Amino acid sequence: MRFKVRSECKYDNTSEPSRWVESSVPPKGIPGTAAVDLDCVWHNLEYMACKWLAGKNARSGTKYTLFYWYDGLKSPEKCNNYSIHEGIFECVFNLTFPKVTNTYPTISILIKDDSEEIRPVCASKNPTTLVKPATPKAVTLSKINDEIHLEWSKSDTFPASCLEYEVEYHTGDMGTTWTIEGQHNHISVSAVDPNTKYTFKVRAKPKSACYSSKLSSDWSEEKSIGEKPDSTFYFVLIITIPLIVAVSTIILLFYLKRLKILILPPIPDPREILKRMFGEQNEDSQSGTKDDSVNAYNRLIKEEEIHSLVLTEPLECSYSENENR
Questions:
Q1: Measured between alpha carbons, how far is 282 from 278 in angstroms, rounded to an integer?
Q2: Which of 37, 111, 151, 196 is deepest in the core (most CB within 10 A)?
Q3: Residue 293, SS3?
Q4: Can you say how many angstroms the Cα of residue 253 is from the centroid of all Cα atoms in its chain?
């Protein structure tokens, strides 16, 4: 806490007051243990999210606690929605005011630890400088003749005249980009090419007449309309057509050759026919002569065997009779 004091002459308005004399009471805790880099954002006039880092001299495992207060609260409120990720502390608490309010009270924030070793830190925030609208939703596209209409839902938390919008669109694959700013939740783009694909995205910005914030909402999801020539399709087409023509030509030539054979069969060569005929006859005569000689030889052998049997059989019979006698 810091204190300043000076003196003034009570009855003499012409005299100047004395210089300020300043004195301070240092907070408890070890220097370098207080939270640093406090950053708060008021999201969509609904809740505030504050982030900070631990002091360089703070011990590991320090559990910082955030308290907030503004004119209208009876006592400071403790933030319970607390988290830590990769060394970044964050706490989120509800913060809403009536929509008709034109002025907002200053938000006082205190971050401390239960241990007396951790030095507390205090900050005052003007909420109008921390406003960040929500991302526009329900983005729809429609096309009538040569004009594209883009529309999105209105905000439920901001006054109707306290937001403005920025629309960004491009053609094809991230070609030339255009930006349009408007006061309403719809725009129209005329003189569009019917054979071109258009891609749109939109974000909201707080008006300077209502808020001092420079924070814009996140971009909405991109939406596209229109036809874009598919280069892949044409590439496949270029490869496929010659292949089909080549295969068809081969099949056609094959069937034409067979058809030619059926319609115009080849004429045999008479010389080959005569040669085959006389050659077969010679072979038959030679084989017939050879067969006759073989057959005659076989018959001669059989006759000799028969004669020998006839001649030898009586001798054997007479020999056997003499023995019996």
A1: 6
A2: 111
A3: helix
A4: 48
- For the chain, how far is it from start to end, CA to CA, in angstroms? 172
pLDDT of 315 above 80: no
State the Cα–Cα distance between residues 179 and 170, nearest whole angstrom: 9
Q: To the nearest whole percent, how much of the chain has pLDDT over 70?
A: 74
The angle at the Cα of 29, spanning 24 to 31, to the nearest 5 degrees, equals 80
Amino acid letter, residue 323: E
* CB distance 214 to 131 below 8 Å: no
169: number of Cβ within 10 Å: 24
Written as one letter, the residue type at 41 is V
pLDDT digits 0-9 by tens, 44-70? 999 999 999 999 999 988 999 999 999
Q: How far is CA 269 from CA 106, 262, 265, 310, in A?
A: 116, 18, 13, 62
